[in-house]
């Protein structure tokens, strides 16, 4: 075994059983003597003789130090290093502590004092002496970035869009600027502007309920599947009235709708006839195989409605009970209708409600950009259909 290399002066020395055994074996092999080893390692001859006696009697197990002995050695070496650094620096560190310095600031102040005294101390050793974590010493605080100025001309345009359409968020405002106003703008710029101005929409909570697997609501081709449903609208003195839309599951276009005081079969019949006339010009123009999807409501399962749908050449399709996502397109339109029309106006009667609904349906089909249609309108999607994603 080669001679144990000396430990650099200034480092804390931990005498493990392996190091003690190496020192004892060097003496047994005649490579060194106890006085030389004591001078080399900063020990006493009595300590080395005791190690040699313990090694010869019990082996390396006798050289293992007790935890309390190791702690005592640590404290002794720590005091020795503090004494070597100098009393003047220790007094300065105490004065820094009295000034309220701690952590990274305390270490930097003490190190600067030591450098002024001509003494260079490694940061790791200084952290051990002062009891400060090294991660705290090496931490660099972040510098606040200066915000770039906001484009006030763009902010004015965005504010006008939001005033006209209060429910539009970042993406739809950006799409309106790009496709309706012919102002190509980076979406991140619109996001930053609306965030700084406080014009962003509140995010809805995302539910984590498990979903029942079922067929998709989207149709890849025109006139392949329509969907319908019933919602309630507050019409003032006429009370809660029923609203029934009919949508094309490919273009999301509202083909027909009806608003009446009661949710009877005549309501959904008028909505279906309105959709057939709007799309084909008459009620018997539906292509073969056109599917009409809806939930399991009583009006959709009535004898009169089933006979009417069959007479017009459509095929009814009921969704799985408690699986509303199978009719998701119509459900999502009803949510947009309530947020952008029904909940923004206070209708006095059903006539006023019908006029407002007619204006909104025209806006929805011809002006409102749809995210699922690459921010095109349903009318543009009908004139230039593309495969559904």
Concise overview:
This protein is an alpha/beta fold and 389 residues long.
H-E order: HHHHHHHHHHHEEEEHEHEHHH
Described by its quaternary structure, the protein is single chain
Provide the CATH architecture of the domain at 225-383. 2-Layer Sandwich
Based on helices, strands and strand pairing, what is the structural class?
Answer: alpha/beta
Annotated CATH homologous superfamily of the domain at 225-383: Ribonuclease H-like superfamily/Ribonuclease H
Helix content: 40-55%
CATH class of the domain at 225-383: Alpha Beta
CATH topology of the domain at 225-383: Nucleotidyltransferase, domain 5
Main beta sheet: strand number and arrangement? 6 strands, mixed
Q: Mean pLDDT, nearest integer?
A: 82
Work out the strand percent.
5-15%
Number of helices: 16
Low-confidence stretches: 7-12, 84-93
What would you say this structure looks like, in words?
The protein has 16 helices and 6 strands. The protein is of the alpha/beta class. Among the domains are: 76-138, no CATH class; 152-197; 225-383, Ribonuclease H-like superfamily/Ribonuclease H (Nucleotidyltransferase, domain 5, 2-Layer Sandwich), CATH 3.30.420.10. Strands 1, 2, 3, 4, 5 and 6 form a 6-stranded mixed β-sheet that branches. Helix 2 (34-41) crosses helix 3 and helix 10 packs across helix 11 (187-197). The longest helix is centred in the N-terminal third of the chain and has 19 residues, at 67-85. Residues 7-12 and 84-93 have low confidence and may be disordered.
